[in-house]
Specification:
The complex is a heterodimer. Chain A is α/β, with parallel strands linked by helices. Helix content of chain A is about 50%, strand content about 10%. Chain A contains 16 helices and eight strands. Chain A has helices spanning about 10-25, 40-45, 55-65, 65-75, 85-95, 120-135, 155-180, 185-205, 215-230, 235-250, 280-285, 305-315, 325-335, 350-355, 360-370, 390-404; strands spanning about 30-35, 50, 110-115, 140, 265, 285-290, 340-350, 375-380. In chain A, the strands form two sheets. A four-stranded parallel sheet of chain A has the order 2-1-3-4, sandwiched between helices. By secondary structure, chain B is of the alpha/beta class. Chain B has 16 helices and eight strands. Chain B has helices spanning about 1-10, 15-25, 40-45, 60-65, 75-85, 100-110, 130-150, 155-180, 190-200, 205-215, 240-250, 265, 275-285, 295-310, 325-340, 355-375; strands at about 30, 50, 90-95, 120, 230-235, 250-260, 315-320, 345-350. In chain B, the strands form two sheets. Chain B has a four-stranded parallel sheet with strand order 2-1-3-4, with helices on both faces. Chain B has a four-stranded parallel sheet with strand order 6-5-7-8, sandwiched between helices. Chain B starts with a helix and ends with a helix. The interface between A and B is large, with 46 and 49 residues.
Chain lengths: ~400, ~375
């Protein structure tokens, strides 16, 4: 169950330097922003603002097995154990006095925070709490909820307009915070670069349609880091080109993630970051994850000649910001295109957006494709909400029904 | 007092009353579940807007098949009632973008109930001139959608009439709340909650009549509530009097609140404007905010602090409905701020079921004793 060569030492080679650079930026007095997912990070990148993603940091803390300890610090300050575990982990990380337990020296202190409502209300409240404790301003990008689940081309015009007018406002906020002007040419270049990253990433995903699939979830959940956190960088492009070449070569030569591939699964939402070995366990059962919704929702084509409009069109249709139909269509298409015969729908204890509606997804997918789903009660970073024996029991029963 | 029984009846017989109204008037009944729903517009088509309420004394076995354990139990309870058929008489269901639990259970309502009309109002999360304009546009679309589905026309005149009736109701409710400033208050917390809840279950015209009668009779009521520790109750929704009932049997008395079935529902009026829809949009964007609004904690906490002064509040109970994220994020900060001002605060996380009530009662009792003990 070795990792792809490109992914060897991913943490040391890419995650550590990312946090090190951010700490250097803080030391040098350069602007740093905390960013919540579904926020158009490209605008920050165009202004050389270092983005720090509390979500990514929470997943790092979970992988390093300290998330629960940090979450408990937030809980002692009154933050309910039922809240998003990402939120509790990072609130704990800034409130703790034991700074030496923090992976990568903690998140550097931001100059300001930015969030959008496109994923959930939790983002807005969580960032409000961080902003309060850090005494740094928060800009909120108020995204209309895409109630019809329309794709980029069919969005309500007034949603796009509302989103774009706030991007203008955001730019003014950023210019004031950083004392620099946004260079429109640079924004266009950044948009072009982000689009290139997104296309490369999708190209990599497409090779996973091959039987046997050349890449599994364990590698995808690491590699998606660039797509999610710093899409518009040459580093991202270089990394994905290398990864693309490796995956392409494997697909060509029929080298799968596992050789005896019996089941092809779609994984919805988040993994248990504290237990990524779980995917090896699935592999041992003859199952490989061929696609994750998480690897598809951050993509979207961008047009450098219309930077703001294309950002609106990229972020408004994110499935977290949509009625359940969009999530169903996404999984349905993945299941078809990637020849999947099973779907895993992990519930995230602190996440209403992803947990509610899974039954509809399960029902409709079975009706339309005959592909069964398994709803798993887990958590992305709080292992107190994860019962391994129970989960493995459910998985094994599920795999048996797939065999039947 | 007899008139109080009328409000209680509206609450306990809500389905029968709505169905009877529908049969007698041959007009639609439209359910809503967020205080950001502009009922005025629904009322302008001569429909009866009613708030979707749950109950704490029934099991939710039907809804449990569709909702995960980590979903809001109020949303679960209302959806369970829908699956049982209790809301089969609804001609429409309207919600707004004001809560992740509501937003996602809206998908469930659409998929698993037979209600013929659904509408979602995209309520902004910021209070700016641009978001106000956006909401105005959303309300125009809502109006057009109602007109199309129910084959009717909404004119400025019908809207102005609805606004007038709604404002009248809000003004009366504020007068009712003023009666609770006295010591002991002229109405108990349970009675006040029943009055506000019942206002969402009948036409405002009918409710205004009842309120007028109440206001003229209550000052001489022979059976005023017993004095107790004066409490402000805050939280998301309180759709049944169960929690206030136990609070008021152990020496507390709720004299005011920050609830979406309390002051957050009726505190603000629609201001006069040539364009009624614009006026309505402004009212909903500027009202005492629910915590899903950006940077709303400052304004909401100030509202709470003002109420504490005006109603001579001695202590605060925060009733946190489990999985209500936006309130759970605000609670630690609110607790800290109130305690810094010397106000005792009790945080109660609860599930919307009756089974959890006994331990809550013990905690409230201990809290009341503690407050009484403070010299």
């Amino acid at each position: 169950m070795t990792r792809l060569q490109t992914l060897e030492g991913f943490y040391q080679n890419h995650i550590q330097p990312y946090y090190q650079n951010a700490h250097n930026a803080e030391r040098d007095g350069k602007p740093i922003a905390y960013v919540a997912s579904t926020f158009p990070v490209e605008i920050l990148q165009a202004m050389d603002i270092t983005p720090i993603w509390p979500e990514n940091y929470a997943s790092v803390c979970a992988a390093r097995q300290v998330s629960v300890r940090l979450a408990e610090i937030a809980e002692r300050r009154g933050y309910s154990r039922d809240l998003c575990s990402y939120a509790r982990t990072t609130i704990g990380s800034i409130l703790t006095t034991e700074k030496d337990i923090l992976p990568e020296g903690g998140m550097p202190k931001p100059t300001f925070l930015v969030a959008s409502t496109a994923a959930c209300d939790t983002h807005l409240k969580w960032f409000q709490v961080l902003s309060h404790h850090l005494k740094r301003p928060l800009y909120l990008l108020d995204s209309p909820y895409n109630i019809t689940g329309a794709d980029a081309e069919n969005l309500e015009p007034h949603y796009i307009q509302q989103y774009m007018s706030q991007l203008e406002e955001l730019i003014t906020f950023l210019e004031k915070q950083t004392n620099t002007k946004l260079d429109k040419n640079r924004l266009r270049k950044i948009i072009e670069l982000s689009d290139r990253t997104s296309n490369l990433w999708l190209e990599i995903q497409d090779y996973r349609r091959t039987i046997p699939a050349p890449m599994g979830a364990r590698d995808a959940f690491s590699a998606v880091f660039f797509m999610l956190c710093i899409p518009a960088t040459q580093t991202a492009v270089n990394f994905y080109e290398k990864l693309r070449d490796e995956v392409k070569e494997r697909a060509k030569n029929g080298i799968g993630k596992i050789q005896n591939e019996r089941h092809r699964l779609i994984w919805d939402n988040l993994p248990m970051w504290f237990n990524l070995k779980f995917f090896n366990y699935l592999n041992n059962l003859g199952a490989v994850t061929v696609a994750e919704t998480f690897s598809h929702v951050w993509t979207g084509s961008l047009d450098p000649s219309k930077p703001l409009e294309s950002l609106a069109k990229k972020y408004l249709p994110n499935f977290a910001n949509c009625s359940v139909e969009r999530r169903i269509n996404l999984i349905l298409n993945l299941a078809k295109d990637f020849h999947a015969n099973g779907i895993i729908l992990p519930t995230n204890w602190g996440c209403r957006m992803m947990s509610i509606g899974e039954t509809i997804v399960k029902e409709v997918l079975y009706e339309k494709l005959g592909v069964p789903s398994l709803i798993l009660n887990v958590d992305s970073s709080d292992w107190r909400n994860y019962n391994e024996a129970q989960v493995k029991n459910q998985i094994e029963t599920f795999i048996e029904t797939l065999n039947a | 007092m007899q008139i109080l029984q009328s409000f209680k009846n509206l609450l306990h017989r809500k389905h029968i009353i709505a169905k009877t109204w529908k049969n007698q008037n041959k007009r639609p009944v439209v359910g809503w579940n967020s205080t950001y729903t502009p009922e005025e517009i629904i009322s302008a088509i001569n429909a009866l807007p009613i708030r979707i309420l749950g109950s704490m004394d029934t099991t939710t076995t039907l809804a449990d098949a569709y909702l995960p354990r980590n979903a809001c139990s109020f949303a679960r309870s209302t959806f369970d009632h829908a699956l049982k058929g209790d809301y089969n008489y609804l001609d429409g269901f309207v919600t707004s973008n004001s809560c992740d639990n509501f937003g996602k259970t809206y998908d469930l309502w659409r998929h698993y109930t037979q209600i013929p009309y659904f509408h979602f109002i995209n309520t902004p999360h910021t209070n700016t001139p641009k978001s106000s304009e956006f909401l105005y546009y959303e309300l125009i679309r809502f109006k057009e959608s109602l007109e199309k589905h129910f084959k009717t026309t909404i004119t400025n005149k019908t809207l102005q009439t609805a606004i007038k009736t709604y404002n009248e109701n809000r003004t009366f409710l504020k007068q009712v709340y003023n009666l609770r400033r006295k010591d002991p208050p002229l109405l108990s917390g349970v009675e006040a909650l029943e009055i506000v809840l019942s206002s969402m279950l009948t036409t405002k015209q009918a409710h205004n009549k009842l309120l007028k009668q109440l206001l003229s009779e209550v000052t001489t009521r022979p059976d005023p509530p017993k004095p107790g520790v004066r409490l402000l109750i805050t939280g998301s929704i309180m759709d049944t009097p169960d929690l206030l009932n136990i609070t008021e049997t152990v020496g507390g008395i709720a004299v005011t609140d920050d609830l979406c079935t309390g002051t957050r529902y009726f505190w603000n009026l629609v201001e006069a404007n040539k364009d009624p829809l614009e006026a309505i949009a402004k009212r909903y964007i500027n009202k005492i905010p629910s915590p899903f609004m950006h940077d709303s904690h400052r304004e909401r906490f100030n509202h709470i602090k003002q109420l504490i002064k005006d109603y001579d509040v001695e202590a605060v109970i925060i009733f946190l409905l489990k999985f209500c994220d936006t309130h759970m994020f605000d609670a630690p900060l609110l607790t800290e701020e109130l305690k810094a001002e010397g106000i005792p605060v009790l945080n109660i996380e609860y599930e919307h079921t009756r089974s959890g009530i006994a331990p809550i009662k013990t905690r409230i009792e201990a809290f009341i004793e503690m407050v009484k003990g403070v010299p």
